[in-house]
Design a protein that fits this description.
By secondary structure, the chain is α+β, with helices and mostly antiparallel strands. It contains six helices and 20 strands. The strands form five sheets. A six-stranded antiparallel beta barrel has the order 4-5-8-7-6-9. About 3% of the residues have low confidence.
Length: 411
């Protein structure tokens, strides 16, 4: 028999006190969701951009009575951009809603609070992934051992996979037109140390080289930044093969780590196509640490030197190259073998709606809220919706960085 009362023996008399917030362990979005949303472009069926792809070329030269060569008109085309919808469904039972309602201490968060069901955070994370990797895939399989899928070094992104336990993915043989291997694959565990995504469901046909996609997103839905950066065919109705100004640039950094010098060399490819303005270069987190070390080695102690306190490091690095000002920023949703430089002014989001849970509000009794009673169970379903597409008006200003040996940019 216990001689002293403890928190265990009197547990029923001790009031539980919850923190005022949920300790979320899932990284949040941090860049592309914050791009400018062009609400000045009213999207009906699609948005049309008139693009000039070549100059007027009917020149003649010489002396005296010159025979003219004739007119050669400029080439122009229409870029047709459609938005793609993203919808999140989430449900809660009636008794859960009842117990989490009201202003008292029945629950640590009110049901109507975002703290209770982190739907908006989940939505923005998925949106960030689609803006970056839509139609390009989440990673390439290196090996498959009974459903333990090891992702290749160059296509691995730990932040991307965190928080996806329970998500449904698919394995395809290639980007675009290809063959699906097996059916739905449900993520059961993720090991970021070994780059392993373990799935349940039949996965015996998934082999090395297969590319993993969220269910229903292969060759459908949003075109991500990385798809735009690697396009060599027709995109938004214009051929990058026919018109090189519509194609982005590939900068092979060789077989060693990304450096400031290599970023400058890549920016020259953008400058070759007329980019002389502010650009942003997103790099993987580990690669950014190497760039910080390079930059730190160039620093000298100045008049503000304090012998008692050393402070160094950078949130971002800004310098000037052939294309103008370049801001290098660490980006958590990048695969470790790639980086991208893009023009800030010409890259934005267009569509009919940002993230919302209200549609069709008419001021006449229809509030537009997407809350529904589930037909067969005692629960309500809520939905979040957006309709948008990331777009770069001048893809020739984009430069995509990768390694020729298919390894990570930080090694």
């Amino acid at each position: 028999m216990a001689t002293a009362n403890t928190t265990s023996t009197l547990a029923s008399r001790i009031k539980e006190q919850f923190n005022n917030d949920i300790s979320s362990l899932v990284p949040g979005p941090n860049k592309l969701c914050k791009l400018n949303f062009r609400d000045d472009i009213e999207l009906g069926k699609s948005a049309i951009f008139d693009v000039q792809l070549s100059d007027e070329l009917g020149f003649s030269s010489g002396q005296g009575n010159i025979t003219l060569n004739g007119a050669i008109a400029q080439t122009a085309a229409r870029a047709t951009v459609d938005a793609y919808s993203l919808i999140l469904q989430y449900q809660a039972s009636y008794d859960l809603i009842s117990r989490a309602s009201g202003g008292d201490k029945k629950a640590f968060a009110n049901f109507t609070s975002n703290k209770f069901i982190p739907a908006t955070e989940s939505f923005q994370r998925r949106q960030e992934m689609m803006h970056m990797h839509g139609r390009q895939g989440l990673g390439t399989v290196l090996t498959n051992t009974s459903g333990a899928l090891v992702i290749s070094v160059a296509t691995w992104c730990p932040t991307l996979w965190l928080g996806l336990t329970g998500a449904v993915i698919e394995g395809w043989t290639a980007i675009g037109g290809s063959t699906q291997h097996d059916a739905d694959l449900t993520i059961s565990t993720v090991n970021v140390d070994t780059r392993t995504v373990t799935v349940t469901g039949t996965s015996s046909s998934v082999v090395a080289g297969d590319i993993l996609f969220f269910k229903g997103t292969h060759a459908a839905g949003h075109y991500g930044m990385m798809y735009i950066a690697q396009n060599t065919g027709s995109l938004f109705g214009i051929s990058a093969t026919t018109y090189p100004t519509w194609a982005s640039n590939l900068s092979d950094v060789g077989t060693s780590a990304l450096t400031m010098g290599k970023i400058l060399q890549g920016s020259a490819l953008s400058a070759n196509k007329g980019c002389f303005e502010k650009t942003t270069c997103l790099v993987p987190v580990k690669a950014f640490q190497g760039l910080v070390a390079d930059e730190s080695s160039l620093r000298q102690y100045g008049a503000n030197y304090d012998s008692k306190k050393a402070k160094n490091g950078f949130e971002g690095i800004t310098f000037f190259g052939a294309s103008g000002e370049i801001e290098v920023v660490p980006y958590a949703y990048l695969k470790e073998g790639e980086a991208i430089l893009y023009p800030d002014r010409w890259t934005y989001l267009i569509g009919s709606s940002k993230m919302t849970m209200e549609l069709g509000q008419d001021g006449k009794g229809q509030d537009g809220k997407m809350w529904f009673d589930v037909a067969t169970t005692s629960a309500k379903e809520m939905r979040l919706f957006s309709d948008m597409q990331l777009f770069c008006e001048k893809p020739g200003y984009i430069t995509y960085f990768t390694r020729s040996d298919s390894l990570a940019l930080h090694t």
